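Budget justification aside, the reviewers requested a transparent look at the raw inputs and outputs of the sequence design task funded under Objective 1. We therefore reproduce one unedited record. The lines immediately below are the structure tokens for a 234-residue chain.
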């Protein structure tokens, strides 16, 4: 093999190696909810690429409380959807779902949502970019967007967007919107978000899993008269 031949051979080997590495970093995990096997593609290289325990808590709740929280034909948005499990379960339970996350997460999110809902759901879910606090009025105008439910699993942790997260809940939530939020408690600084959240929303504990440090909350907007404006500071 000439010099050029070795060069292309080594390029081929390098590309092959990168494909193998890439394949090795991707996992499939199966879950069972709402009468379906749900296959989720996960990776290990970012927060949104694995299914977090809070998502399982929320899915379990949705499945087991589908009479009280009947999602059929309801408009649902999930923020920080990650791999999409919660959005998929809400879709399988009959909701019209918009699954959102950062742009770099949308490829895998779309893949999981599409593969697990195609021909199985009353309403085909949408996948859309929603970076917290960014272009909210442009992409989700208050005048035309009405969500019956906002769902969020494990969106509070050590990241610099807690102000923007609160703004996003505030923007998307109408007076009759129900927020279902599974919160994993970690460090004190992030945990204080709950207090700030309560300046705008009434909070009710739906279930508590002390061994996992996870609490599932239901929240609704406080009436404008009683809400204290948040300083939007962490
Ligand atoms: C810990 S993961 C939880 C993922 C999923 N909800 C679950 O429970 O499996 C946090 C999610 O929030 C998303 N996220 C973080 N910062 C964000 C931001 N500024 N705007 C929108 N999404 C964000 C991440 O991309 C990730 O999908």
């Amino acid at each position: 093999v000439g010099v050029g031949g070795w060069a292309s051979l080594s390029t081929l080997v390098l590309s092959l190696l990168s494909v193998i590495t890439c394949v090795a970093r991707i996992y499939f995990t199966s879950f069972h909810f709402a009468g379906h096997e749900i296959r989720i593609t996960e990776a290990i290289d970012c927060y949104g690429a694995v299914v977090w325990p809070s998502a399982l808590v929320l899915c379990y709740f949705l499945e087991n409380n589908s009479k009280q929280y009947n999602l059929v034909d309801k408009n649902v948005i999930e923020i920080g959807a990650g791999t999409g499990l919660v959005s998929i379960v809400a879709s399988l339970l009959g909701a019209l779902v918009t699954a959102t996350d950062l742009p770099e997460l949308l490829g895998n999110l779309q893949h999981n949502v599409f593969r697990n809902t195609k021909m199985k759901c009353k309403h085909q879910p949408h996948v859309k970019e929603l970076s917290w606090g960014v272009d909210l009025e442009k992409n989700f105008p208050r005048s035309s967007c009405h969500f019956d439910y906002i769902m969020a699993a494990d969106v509070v942790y050590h990241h610099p967007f807690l102000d923007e997260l609160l703004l996003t809940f505030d923007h998307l939530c109408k007076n009759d919107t129900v927020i279902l939020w599974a919160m994993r408690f970690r460090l004190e600084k992030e945990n204080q978000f709950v207090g700030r959240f309560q300046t705008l929303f009434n909070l009710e504990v739906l279930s508590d899993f002390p061994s996992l440090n996870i609490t599932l909350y239901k929240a609704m907007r406080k009436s404008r008269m009683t809400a204290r404006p948040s300083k939007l500071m962490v």
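The domain at 46-221 is CATH 3.40.50.150 (Rossmann fold). The helical segments are 3-24, 53-64, 85-92, 106-117, 136-139, 162-172, 188-191, 193-197. Computational costs for records of this kind are itemized in the attached budget.
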